């Protein structure tokens, strides 16, 4: 079960990405420990996904690398967007 508020999600989004007026569109799979939020902006919608920080960083790095290869490099999946610091994953409020 997700134990993080919409306000906290928006704080995380604003801290780590440069998005125009982000809003929470909807939550997905609320019964799961995994985060899935539709983030709406004036120009585009995004899907914010997260896993509990109990998942090893090696797993996160592997998933991110696979997603970059399939999505960003080969167009076989949706693109993944870098955070302000240039990284493709973050750790914040107990989630990756």
Quick overview of this protein structure:
The protein is α+β, with helices and mostly antiparallel strands and 96 residues long.
Could you explain how this protein is built, in words?
With 96 residues, the chain is α+β, with helices and mostly antiparallel strands. It has one domain. 29% of the residues lie in helices and 18% in strands. The protein has a three-stranded antiparallel β-sheet, covered by helices on one side. A hairpin with a 7-residue loop joins strand 1 and strand 2. The two termini are 16 Å apart.
Summary tags:
single chain; 96 residues; alpha+beta; three-stranded antiparallel beta sheet; 18% strand
The average pLDDT value, as a whole number, equals 92
What is the end-to-end distance? 16 Å
Q: Name the assembly state.
A: single chain
Query: What's the structural domain tally?
Result: 1
- Encode the helix/strand succession as letters: HEEEH
Number of helices: 2
Strand content: 15-25%
Instruction: Kindly report the spatial arrangement of strands forming the biggest sheet.
Output: 1-2-3
Radius of gyration: 13 Å
User: Which spans have pLDDT < 50 for at least 5 consecutive residues?
Assistant: none
Helix content: 25-40%
**Structural class computed from helices and strand pairing:** alpha+beta
Topology:
Blueprint: H1 6-16, E1 23-27, E2 35-40, E3 45-50, H2 57-73
Antiparallel strand pairs: 1-2, 2-3
């Amino acid at each position: 079960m997700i134990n993080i508020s919409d306000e906290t999600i928006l704080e995380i989004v604003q801290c780590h990405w440069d998005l125009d007026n982000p809003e929470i569109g909807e939550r997905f799979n609320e019964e799961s420990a995994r985060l899935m939020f539709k983030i709406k902006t004036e120009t585009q919608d995004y899907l914010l996904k997260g896993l509990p920080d109990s998942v090893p960083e090696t797993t996160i790095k592997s998933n991110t690398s696979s997603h970059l290869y399939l999505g960003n490099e080969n167009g076989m999946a949706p693109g993944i967007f870098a955070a302000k610091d240039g990284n493709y994953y973050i750790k914040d409020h107990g989630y990756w």
